[in-house]
Design brief:
This protein is of the alpha+beta class. It folds into 4 domains: 116 residues, Immunoglobulin-like; 124 residues, Sandwich (Immunoglobulin-like), CATH 2.60.40; 106 residues; 106 residues, no CATH class. It contains 9 helices and 32 strands. Strands 10, 11, 13, 14 and 15 form a 5-stranded antiparallel beta sheet that branches. Strands 21, 23, 24, 25 and 26 form a 5-stranded antiparallel beta sheet that branches. Strand 14 and strand 15 form a beta hairpin. Helix 5 runs antiparallel to helix 6, helix 7 packs antiparallel against helix 8 and helix 8 runs antiparallel to helix 9.
Length: 582
């Protein structure tokens, strides 16, 4: 009977304690510096359920952390219980702040007072364990000029974790520069570890800017050595941080101000590109200064600049000359960032197709930029270039002036031109071909390729004849369709018909890559990986969308497609490209 009564008595004692529970609040410190956090301890007697209402604190504080603990003691048969809440508060104001009364289970805590002093600039000199410094290399930059913003965290306390805020600025392009740097230094004889973070700021409008103060949210490890003595055997274990308590802190640095200037009065017109250094270069492929009509030239324009974001570099588009057609490709850009600044590069490739013979001088390419180091306007220039364009071999051979006399063993089948300068007495005997009967180089070339083609067919037939019927490959399916596509392709090129050429090209490509056929001219250009053919396919693609009668010339495409098998076989022996001519 007595044994069963004791647990009941303990329970009644607990409920009696809860009915008389008190709720209190206490600050661990009543005076702090700006940027520091403070601990608020809330306590309730008895075993508490639920949480106190901390909403009234949010107007003046930011709650960084909240932990709960319970404690039950039995002394001389008497039970006492207590529930505690540990809140980490970061003040939003400077000066004297009154913490309002908080409510829990109908009980109210007493109001508290906290004094927040402004941060003293001598905190580092006084040996503060944790502080932040920030700086900019320019206070009055020009619009779009790079500003180097540096943030340094100095600490000699043990940090369990930390998070440093990034700058936020309207109408400004912000780029992180490299990785964080870590090093050690001394301030007034006190050693610190330093974490440095760098940014590039590019303000896009003139005016006054305020870079907000950098903020560090961290947890400092608080050692428990003092309660155990300096030589306690468990000190090393507890010093590891696993069993040490941590304190949440918030540290603020200083805000920085920029007065961004507009463009100089003398530079209100034209391009505006502020940079620390800039270089303009070009590459030609091929490098020869004499080319044939229809032979594509590939020109690569390169801009390299320091202190400029890649997105700010302009697209260079040279002026088209009367003797060329220009087909620019989309520009590519890249940027590399280090702790000292940013280097950007922009590359643009342009295909030049000569359209007529003659000597042409391509004008110089200029780029105006503002030298931010020397504070003056400069101009980067690519000099003019003279290119001599000669008539294509086929075109020259078809002209009457370049016709050659037909050999005696060949029956007359050439263009007949009168020879008025010869007199009747100079006419040769009738057993010789008439002197006016001539054959052009084009006919000789056609005859030569026809003979070579017949010879190739003969060799192929002789090589395959010994095969048995079961081993003989099927020549009537894919190869025949590819040959038909070849024939249609070359006919379309010779007839300068872009729509038919595109259809035949894709049909031929489907034969060569049946598993993954290219679905367009752009995909085919990537598959061929040939700079000149890429330019010619781009020209064909643009001709498809021209309004009115097309002026597309298919001869260059025909010529380079015929040369493709040799070039592809010379690059690799694996997965060779099927030749256009078997």
């Amino acid at each position: 009977m007595t044994q069963s009564f004791i647990p009941l008595l303990l329970i009644l004692t607990l409920f009696t304690t809860q009915s008389w529970a008190e709720f209190s609040a206490q600050l661990k410190r009543d005076t702090i510096q700006e940027g520091e956090s403070v601990q608020l301890i809330l306590q309730s007697d008895g075993q508490a359920s639920g949480e106190p209402d901390t909403t009234p604190l949010l107007q003046q504080f930011e709650i960084l952390g909240n932990s709960r603990s319970s404690q039950v003691n039995i002394i001389n048969g008497k039970m006492s219980a207590r529930t505690s809440w540990n809140l980490t508060l970061s003040p939003k104001l400077i000066g004297t702040i009154t913490l309002p009364a908080l409510e829990f289970n109908g009980e109210h805590s007493a109001p508290l007072t906290l004094k927040v002093h402004p941060v003293e600039t001598t905190s580092a000199e006084q040996g503060s364990p944790l502080f932040i410094e920030s700086s900019v290399d320019l206070k009055t930059p020009y619009i779009q000029q790079m500003v180097h913003y540096r943030v340094q965290l100095f600490y000699r306390a043990k940090l369990a974790e930390g998070s440093l805020s990034d700058p936020q600025l309207e109408n400004t392009l912000i780029q992180r520069l490299g990785e964080d740097r870590e090093f050690t230094t001394k301030r007034n004889g006190v050693g610190y570890r330093v974490v440095e973070r760098n940014y590039a700021l590019f303000p896009q409008q003139s005016g006054r800017y305020t870079i907000p103060a950098p903020v560090l949210d961290a947890r400092i490890i608080q050692s428990n050595n003092s309660s155990r003595g300096p030589r306690h055997p468990l000190n090393d274990l507890f010093n590891s941080g696993r069993f040490n308590s941590t304190q949440a802190v918030r540290i603020r640095g200083e805000a920085q101000t920029l007065n961004v200037r507009p463009r100089p009065p003398s530079q209100q017109r034209g391009e505006w590109l502020p940079a620390q250094a800039l270089q303009l270069s070009e590459q030609w492929l091929p490098e020869e200064e004499e080319v044939e009509v229809g032979m594509p030239l590939s020109r690569t324009l390169i801009i390299e600049a320091e202190g400029v974001a890649g997105t700010m570099l302009p697209d260079l588009t040279p002026v088209a000359d009367a003797g060329f057609k220009l087909y620019p490709e989309p520009a590519t850009q890249e940027s590399s960032a280090t702790s000292e600044g940013m280097i950007s590069k922009k590359v643009r490739k342009i295909a030049y197709i000569p359209t007529q013979a003659g000597s042409f001088t391509l004008p110089a390419v200029t780029l105006q930029w503002w030298n931010s180091r020397k504070n003056r306007m400069e101009v980067a220039t690519l000099p003019s270039k003279t290119i001599t364009v000669v008539a294509a071999v086929n075109a020259a051979a078809n002209s009457p002036e370049n016709s050659i006399e037909q050999p005696k063993s060949i029956a007359p089948a050439a263009v007949v031109t009168p020879q008025p300068q010869r007199t009747p007495q100079s006419i040769p005997p009738t057993t010789q071909p008439p002197p006016t009967e001539r054959i052009t180089l084009w006919h000789w070339t056609t005859l030569l390729f026809a003979l070579l083609w017949l010879l190739t067919l003969l060799l192929s037939w002789r090589r395959r004849r010994p095969q048995s019927p079961s081993e003989k490959p099927d020549l009537n399916s894919e190869p025949s369709s590819c040959k038909a596509a070849q024939k249609q392709l070359f006919a379309a090129c010779n007839n300068n018909h872009p729509q038919q050429a595109r259809a035949a090209l894709l049909e031929w490509a489907a034969c060569r890559w049946p598993d993954e056929p290219p679905t367009g001219l752009g995909a085919l250009a990537q598959r061929l990986d040939h700079p000149i053919l890429s330019a010619l396919l781009s020209e064909l693609d643009q001709a498809l969308y021209q309004q009115g009668e097309s002026s597309w010339d298919g001869a260059p495409l025909h010529q380079h497609l015929r040369q493709l098998p040799k070039e592809k076989r010379s690059k690799t022996d694996t997965s060779p490209l099927q030749p256009l001519y078997p």
